[in-house]
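Why do we care about 3D structure at all? Because function follows from shape, and shape follows, mostly, from sequence. That is the central idea of this module. The next example makes it concrete: a single protein chain, its amino acid sequence, and then its structure expressed as tokens.
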Amino acid sequence: MDISEFLEPVGQVDFQFQGEAPVHPRLGDLINIYLEPDHFPDYLAADIALLGINEDRNAFNNKGCGQAADVIRKYLYALYPPGHELKIVDLGNIREGFQVSDTYFALTEVVSEMLQNNVLPVLIGGSHDLTFANYQSYQNLGQIVNIVSIDPMFDLGQSEEEMNSRSYLSHIILQQPNYLFNFANIGYQSYFTDQDALRLLKNLMFDTYRLGVSRSNPEETEPVIRNADIMSVDISAVRFSDAPGNGNATPNGFYGEEICQLIRYAGLSDKLSSIGFYETNPTLDPNGQTSHLVAQMIWYFIDGFYNRAHDFPFRNEDDYMKYRVSIHDHKEDLTFFKSKKTDRWWMEIPLESDLRMKYQRHYLVPCSYQDYQMACNNDIPDRWWMVYQKLM
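And the structure:
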């Protein structure tokens, strides 16, 4: 497929230190950037593809976030690269369609092409509803997926509400056929959360983590992130003092260094295959602080990606320690696996052999050492129960 028809070159981005001596290259010197119409980068040999999206017509109270991509690039290109050999292309910006649905279609087609060629798309700019178009890429490929959203609210909207950045999740849930296996929200704030919405997500056996829990124990969110195929980041999850460039920024939220840690977890995950950074609004960010933070978040993702341990079970069973735990009044033992490379944990959900192919990426569930300890104390972890019920 010729995806270049959906893309336009990056605008002129003059990043600080551009043209510096080659002994001190910055990311902008090392990324193959789509700058001229007749010179579309070869993405087939890349590991990561940056994609800007200048679409904010469905933004809620945040018009201007469609201008973020090139501003974020200005700060990203000026950063020193992590200590790895990088294979990154910047494919420019998705062309804004005549209607928003046209932009969704273009984004879906481009991301589908990336996924089919094992290139990880990093989506930059635009409003949070673009997560829907990203999800449709997996739907087109028939892949059952898990989504993790870092967001102070659930974005369910009202029943029958038209698509916008506050209602996209309902549209994903109601899609038929549906390829969403699990959704997890990290960092929701209770005073922005309708209790009926919270009950709905719990009834659907989705994961929700309040801001306080996520901040006080970020290690417990790592298995949730490690289980995701798609990560979607709304910058309004970061407090106003650290990220003022957003029409919905509030006093509370993650600190900059905390959100960067979560993003690095995403980079380290073997399973995660796309990530999007949304809702940054340069028109509300005169000093560029928010765009600079998002650039650093992308840097942490790249660093995590190039430090992946490739220990998602089971490439080689000798690389794991296997533990069986008997639970009182439970028919089967619980089986845990610990990676000898990274000390990360997984637990196996019993599943009929004829279903293993369909759910091959879901019956081995990332977990924590605390989950193993809970089982040793004769208590079945919540993570185990939730996935077991979905698979049954």
